[in-house]
Write a structure and sequence with these properties.
Length: 127
């Protein structure tokens, strides 16, 4: 079992920045590919960013490329999502997810691939 706890959400003006954190506990964090997803009211959960467990490969949704950066710190068992140049349309609950994966270069972009989820953190961007 892996427990995931997100933090760092909040209210920010358009153009501002936030850094989300996802702290993992339980099994070895190293062998988990990680992802960030978001869900706005009335919309389906959508992929934001993913990182392989070896941090060799990262992948981003088109709408965040150049603005968001995913990273991970194995010593802290934490994955981050740095969000810059935020827009009102980025308003959503952001979730992190973990997928057991022994290949250090593999990441996943489909939410159905993930085994564990956090409870989410609210991000609200005002115009």
């Amino acid at each position: 079992q892996v427990q995931l706890v997100e933090s760092g959400g909040g209210l920010v003006q358009a153009g501002g920045s936030l850094r989300l954190s996802c702290a993992a506990s339980g099994r070895t964090f190293s062998n988990y590919a990680m992802g960030w997803f978001r869900q706005a009211p009335g919309k389906e959960r959508e992929f934001v960013a993913a990182i392989s467990w070896g941090a060799i490969n990262m992948y981003y949704a088109d709408f965040v490329k150049g603005r968001f950066t995913i990273s991970r710190d194995h010593a802290k068992n934490t994955v981050y999502l740095q969000m810059n140049s935020l827009k009102p349309e980025d308003t959503a609950v952001y979730f992190c997810a973990a997928k057991l994966e022994y290949n250090n270069g593999i990441y996943y972009i489909d939410h159905s691939d993930y085994d564990y989820w956090g409870q989410g953190t609210q991000v609200t961007v005002s115009s």
